[in-house]
What does this fold into?
Amino acid sequence: MKSMNDEDAVDFTKIDGNDEQRLFKHMLKGYSSAVRPVFNASHQVTVFIGLTLTHIFNIDERNQVLALNVWVEQSWTDERITWRPADFGNISKLTMAMRYLWTPDIVLYNNARDFSRGFVDTNLHVSSDGLVQWAPPQKIYSRCHMDVSNFPFDHQFCSLVFRSWMYDLPQLDLRIVQRYDGNSPFTKDSFTENGEWEIVDNRTFRYIHTSGSTEYSTVVFEMHLRRRMLYFMYNIIMPCVMLSILTMMQFALPCESGEKITLGLTVLLAYSVFSFNIAESMPETSEVIPLIAIYLMAIMAISALSVVFSVFVLTLRHGAENKTDMPRWLEFLGFRLLAPLFGGSTQEKRRKHERAKCIIDTNRVLKANGIREETISKGLIERVQAELEFEHMVARWSQLANIFDRFFFTTVFMLTVSSTAFLLMVAPNMENPSLHDRVWDIL
It folds into this structure.
């Protein structure tokens, strides 16, 4: 092994070439990139790592993969490539290709792609004191468990786990870089904002991973992401609210229009299409059901219930066609309980008074035409009275149908408003997670 005294005796100015070329030849003389950059094999190589996030390329909820563009900043000291700047034209830094020097085998441990795709082959900056700096840009794909229970008001926590693939702790110690300007080791100085996600917070920590009896130094960069809601409010929530309004409008349609059921079924079909579109962007998991899916199912159930209500109202509307008297329980429920709140007659004696009035009106019609009651058969009088009674029955059933129509409108309105208010106001504020209160699951 060449000592420092031997190097002092060498006249580097006599080596052919310019200063950088002479320095390059001096550094690589007897150098091997296959071994760690220490003279004593028992010594540990300390590698400092930092991360600069430039862009969130994509977050695939379906496959639960986070794609980022980053600069993986690494630095370490190579004891075998020190020199005196005065011997090489006062050159204190030199840029060299990656293939000439030893580089640590740091990998993204929770990689979601092929591990053979390493860092980009970029140049390294070497200082005269042996400090090597390397910041390759890289597009990385990380596994990230997505909790979509509060979608689209969800928060996600994604981690980037870096460690050496082969060197254990006695050989290589991976540490968090300490920036000279006091910034976080996980910086966003060159970050381009993402249209769907915003970074709420980030943190960096180091821990020792144990695999059997072997220990590995590990550095974790963790992000707290929050989904931007404007896109989903405009494309999902608002159409659902408008369809809910259409669901309630079927109770405003008169029974004679014949379109109450058609409108309800059309709205129900539209909800089914929305549910299918949302399911395409959700991860295929049975662990949780997204909040927006629960909301859609609730609104679809309300829409289906509205169709059932409309069928019931139409049945009441045509109840007199069977020439059957109104059941006492239905009459009590409609005219005694619901009529005071939703309009309609509440007095039973009014019904008897109207029947008596029908008979009086019949006699007046006969007298007005100069016809005596004695000259008219009793059957004809009974038939006229039966027709009047039937008209009264039709009006009675129609009145009951209107009462229930208003009652069902109010019921659907309250259900729709409460479910929508829960989705937009209560659920998003039920949980406000913090990155620093979260316990990280060690790999």
